[in-house]
Amino acid sequence: MNEPLLEVKNLKKYFPVTGGFFKKTIGYVKAADDISFEIKKRETLGLVGESGCGKSTIGRSILRLHEPTSGEVYYKGKNVIRASKNEMKKLRKEMQIVFQDPYSSLNPRMTVGQIISEPIVQHGIMKNGKKLEERIKELLEKCGLASYHTNRYPHQFSGGQRQRIGIARALTLNPSFIVADEPVSALDVSIQSQVLNLMMDLQEELGLSYLFISHDLSVVRHISNRIGVMYLGSLVELSGKKDLFESPKHPYTKALLSAIPEANPRKRKKQVILKGDIPSNVNPPSGCKFHTRCPYVMDICKEASPEFRELGDKHFVACHMAK
């Protein structure tokens, strides 16, 4: 339990920005800038932040759907970034992804049975036949769908059902690690809880580890063991769920937590309003990236980038004033 299943070390992903008649590279979008964390077996790490902060880029870079600019990713001690094509094909069986949009991630011309069976056939695990049909029905039922849904097409399902199909497809090769890229953000609130509970039940049953990406702290609080907060391509805080909600250290984390609605109308809390616009990822501000919006900004924040350091009990933060 103490050994990390996945280790991410100094991961960077820069996208080139081109301009001019000859489309020369004139800059880079620093989508993920020096990211480090680890995920243990049966653990869920939640990754939160505003839209465009680089959350999805990190998930896709770990799986090499985007080739990282630099850094290392280790899965069960194997270097994913330096893996050959054949080695990567083997790792694909153990590292899967559930996409944000449950409709666009499913081929509309394929039936549910064909969608779920495709990875099994491509990896040569089973050929078309009775055993494969039984495996498809088993996965559908495990994800809360009926066996007779096999011959239906994606457009015949609701959004929640389509996301269950996406989860079933991710489970076909018996993975140990799944990147869940905002899997419930496109669903109704009532359906969100059903899908989250399904993912938690599957984690308990199959021993899965998740990197759960979301912009909703309430959702992340429900499913995660630890939470990482991102801002402009960088991790600004990382700690256990309880510690983060009860004792946030970074001003950006405090602002996010203050924006969560209270269920009790009589209970009021002071909301932290961030002023100014989010800086550009192409030309981020010097020093701390958050200093242009921080209500506690100091002179050192404008000059020196804060170190991502541990304050105690595995609570990491990148802030000059954090204690």
Describe, in plain words, how this protein is organized in 3D.
A hairpin with a 2-residue loop joins strand 4 (70-75) and strand 5 (78-79). With 323 residues, this protein is of the alpha/beta class. Helix 5 packs parallel to helix 6 (189-206). It has helices spanning 55-62, 85-92, 112-122, 130-142, 159-171, 189-206, 217-223, 241-246, 251-258, 299-303, and strands at residues 4-19, 24-40, 44-48, 70-75, 78-79, 95-98, 177-181, 209-213, 226-231, 234-240, 309-312, 315-317. Helices cover 30% and strands 25% of the residues. It is built from ten helices and twelve strands. An eight-stranded mixed beta sheet has the order 6-7-8-3-9-10-12-11, sandwiched between helices. The chain has a four-stranded antiparallel beta sheet with strand order 2-1-4-5. The longest helix has 18 residues, at 189-206. It has a domain at 251-322. One of its GO terms (biological process) is transmembrane transport. It holds the Pfam family ABC_tran. This is Peptide/nickel transport system ATP-binding protein. Keywords: ATP-binding, Nucleotide-binding, Transport.
